[in-house]
Design brief:
The structure is a single chain. The chain has about 190 residues and is mostly helical. The protein folds into 2 domains: about 5-55, Orthogonal Bundle (Arc Repressor Mutant, subunit A); about 65-175. About 60% of the residues lie in helices and about 5% in strands. It has helices at about 15-25, 35-40, 45-50, 55-70, 80-95, 100-105, 115-130, 135-155, 170-175, and strands spanning about 5, 10-15. It has a two-stranded antiparallel ribbon. Strand 1 (about 5) and strand 2 (about 10-15) form a beta hairpin.
Length: about 190
């Protein structure tokens, strides 16, 4: 990552790591570039030399968050469900620990292609390890990803569910028991 100093022998004032660290100190859903520059003790224009805009900051945050949640080992045919459960719990713990992050991720927005592509690839690999073909694995990724993120966004974003939201352990168990779906169940005929 790019580093810049204030003179010979001086430590850099800014780095991508410092920007992410400062961004994670408050509510990322309402973070402004001006607020972030203040947290970092730099000018607003200095910050723009490191990131193009707020979306660039959120991309850096997403890179860090995905790195934190992905299990180190690869999913296998015997442990794919447990692997997905570890991933979901890591998402639960990490996303809810940063104010506004779960709600931000749950809202429609442009996701950071590299970090979320990496997350998607690992989850698709888990469903492939379960025996799903590529189409089923892709569809299962969308169900899993949307299900986990929407639950986290609804509870972490205080969208009115509060204590009436189902417990995450029960929700996740129900979600994972139904995935991957090999044959869709037909409901009704008039569609």
């Amino acid at each position: 990552m790019k580093q810049t100093g204030t003179g010979p022998g001086r430590p850099p004032r800014l780095s991508h790591e410092r920007i992410v660290e400062a961004a994670l100190q408050g509510d990322v859903a309402t973070l402004t570039m001006r607020e972030l520059a203040t947290r970092l003790g730099v000018s607003h224009s200095s910050l723009y030399r490191w990131v193009p805009d707020r979306n660039g900051v959120l991309d850096l945050v997403s890179e860090v968050m995905v790195e934190r949640v992905l299990p180190a080992e690869e999913p296998g045919p015997d442990d794919w469900r447990q692997w997905l459960a570890r991933l979901a719990w890591a998402m639960h713990d990490e996303f809810l620990s940063v104010p506004g992050y779960a709600a931000h991720v749950a809202r429609p927005h442009r996701h950071h292609a590299e970090s979320f592509g990496r997350l998607k690839g690992k989850v698709v690999a888990a469903f492939r390890a379960a025996g799903a073909d590529m189409e089923q694995a892709e569809q299962s990724w969308y169900v899993f990803g949307l299900g986990v993120v929407q639950w986290l966004g609804a509870t972490g974003g205080d969208l009115g569910l509060g204590n009436s939201a189902p417990r995450f352990d029960l929700y996740l168990d129900t979600l994972l028991r139904g995935l991957p779906t090999r044959t869709p169940i037909e409901y009704g005929q008039g569609r």
